[in-house]
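Record filed here:
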Amino acid sequence: MLQDEILDEALQEFVERNLIVDVLHVLKSGKEATVCCCLGHRSIGGGLVAAKVYRPISRRSFKNDGLYRNGKVILSGRARRALANKSEMGRQIQFGTWVAYEWEAMNHLFEIGADVPRPIARGESAILMEYFGDEQTAAPQLKSVKLAPGEAAEVFHRVIWNMKRMLANNRIHGDLSPFNILWWKGRPVMIDFPQSVDPRENPSSYALLSRDIENVWRYCRKFGDGIGDPWKLAARLWEAFLRAELV
């Protein structure tokens, strides 16, 4: 019941702001967020949009949060102490930080031309964004798609192009896998960025980059050859980043 109330409150905010006019159906309900397909208001051009509503603080694990938060600067000493003590205030700050960080990351990545949904609006506990799919079916997760051999290589290289573009602009996804890549009209679309990191600041950046590449490689490798060595690729990208040679 609490989750329903939070969901209704977050979506009602978008209605009151003349961003959506109706909630059509739930696309996905996971451990950290619920994503709904909504009908956009004419103020944003109408059509279908997606609303990602984060679960209440008490029902989210923020698994491995410290790994991703390392390097993110929180100026307030009181806020830092609350986070360290894992108090109620600390969890409120933690929750707000993740929502804000995903919003900022999506805007940054969309602006640099990465294959991500267009961010539309942010609420206190939700983000409104571009929807991929049609009125009957949402774009599937890559994990549920069976690729042809040629497609597998193309998908892998396109995802790597995105990783390279992100790294050149000081961002690593940090949790990329076939579960948070959508497949729509022959191209991959990356989603879910609250845990993304700045490689200039987070000491685990290389490990996270390598894991992202390996996760996508393992999936694509099932459907064909010719997609290279993920560990050598990660090393080359990281070395190019350190030398400021990425564009």
Q: What stands out?
A: The longest helix spans residues 88-111. Residues 73-84, 86-94 have pLDDT under 50 and may be disordered.
